[in-house]
């Protein structure tokens, strides 16, 4: 993924009252994104609000395929256990309701290597294909949101091709700006990423890449139907009625911005990765814990185990501790409760050999400084020194239930 030369970035157009004008200059916005992710043709790029919208486009087509008899009732759709919540709900709303059998890949966490994920994917695919069932769609994350893990997506797409999976959709909501993205090299049928998460665009703007010339390209439609229906997905997505399109219009300015940094987006990404690993290791050492995945499976986010003595035993506990850190220590950090039902002896343990159930997800961007991570470190250490447990934040009835 290379920096886009500044002379390829065109000026923004002005609205004319009937919707946004395309940018003036040598290349439109979609062409800039096409170059950014190495798409084969600008017509393969559709601008949408977010990755959830892109998922709706793909899953809507799958639902129609069930409804119209192109897929048999009971054919399978495969997704990762740690798929983003909105995408899971979309799978339920579109394809499960239409008759699909949904099979989840139970990914391990903490994870020690990409091979562990590949092995689980193979096993789940065998379940999905049991009894001669066809696997119509695999939904694969590039970087899972919570817990955050960089998935070996190219390898999983290749497995899908070898095993006869009809189509592969990669939900890469966090990827552009965190990891190199080459959609032709990855080889999925559909690939989406937000540009407002790690590429400095204002919310909300994302893209959906679809392979040119595919048999269903002309059958993909935006779920909000407007005047451009039937003119191709890029046109449909470009105008879905009266709304604020400014986030799409300023994509060229975001590219200008990232190119001001040394090394462009690659330089930003590389430095963020190095720093988040450095800060993650600092926290893990201070807390007597570990990273939730090896550095090779991290982008600009990393999971760090929290001291087990905090006794985080539910999602509610995790949320309450997060809220307390924000209010009392001015630290904002997502906290993940590892709810996988495994035997205690199989759980990852801290330096005291106690099971670790809570993890912070730290991020690094160009504006973060070391002192922010030290504040998090010191806040947690203070809680440990004072003998705090998450039970202190539970309502009385919750304390009785979990006791």
UniProtKB/TrEMBL annotation:
Domain Aminotransferase class V as annotated: residue spans: 33-208
Cell inner membrane among keywords: no
SUPFAM superfamilies the UniProt entry points to: PLP-dependent transferases (SSF53383)
Start and end residues of each stretch annotated as Disordered: 1-27
Keywords, alphabetical: Pyridoxal phosphate
Protein's UniProt keywords contain RNA-binding: no
Official protein name in the record: Aminotransferase class V domain-containing protein
Organism of origin: Triticum turgidum subsp. durum (Durum wheat)
């Amino acid at each position: 993924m290379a920096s886009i030369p500044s002379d390829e970035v065109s000026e923004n157009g002005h609205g004319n009252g009937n919707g946004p004008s395309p940018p003036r200059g040598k290349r439109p916005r979609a062409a800039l994104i096409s170059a950014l992710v190495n798409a084969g043709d600008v017509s393969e790029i559709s601008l949408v609000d977010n990755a959830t919208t892109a998922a709706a486009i793909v899953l809507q087509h799958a639902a129609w395929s069930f409804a119209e008899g192109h897929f048999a009732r009971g054919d399978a759709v495969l997704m990762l256990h740690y798929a983003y919540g909105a995408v899971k709900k979309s799978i339920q709303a579109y394809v499960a309701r239409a008759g699909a059998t949904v099979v989840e890949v139970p990914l391990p966490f903490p994870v020690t290597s990409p091979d562990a994920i590949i092995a689980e994917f193979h096993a789940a695919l065998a379940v999905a294909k049991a009894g001669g069932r066809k696997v119509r769609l695999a939904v694969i994350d590039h970087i899972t949101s919570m817990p955050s893990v960089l998935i070996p997506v190219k390898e999983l797409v290749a497995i899908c091709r070898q095993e006869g999976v009809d189509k592969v959709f990669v939900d890469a909501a966090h990827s552009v700006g965190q990891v190199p993205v080459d959609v032709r090299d990855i080889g999925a049928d559909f690939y989406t990423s937000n540009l407002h998460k790690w590429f400095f665009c204002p919310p909300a703007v994302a893209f959906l890449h679809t392979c040119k010339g595919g048999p269903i390209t002309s059958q993909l439609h935006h779920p909000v139907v407007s005047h451009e229906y039937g003119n191709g997905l890029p046109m449909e997505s470009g105008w879905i009625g009266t709304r604020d399109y400014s986030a799409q219009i300023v994509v060229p300015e975001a590219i200008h911005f990232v190119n001001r940094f040394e090394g462009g987006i690659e330089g930003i990404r590389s430095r963020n990765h190095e720093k988040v690993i450095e800060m993650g290791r600092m926290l893990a050492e201070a807390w007597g814990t570990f990273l939730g995945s090896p550095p090779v499976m991290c982008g600009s986010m990393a999971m760090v185990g929290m001291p087990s003595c905090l006794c985080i035993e539910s999602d509610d506990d995790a949320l309450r501790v997060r809220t307390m850190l924000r209010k009392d220590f001015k630290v904002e950090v997502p906290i993940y409760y590892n709810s996988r039902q495994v035997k205690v002896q199989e759980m990852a343990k801290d330096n005291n050999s106690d099971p670790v159930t809570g993890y912070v997800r730290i991020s690094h961007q160009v504006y973060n400084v070391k002192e922010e991570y030290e504040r998090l470190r010191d806040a947690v250490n203070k809680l440990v020194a004072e003998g705090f447990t998450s039970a202190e934040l539970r309502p009385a009835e919750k304390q009785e239930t979990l006791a």
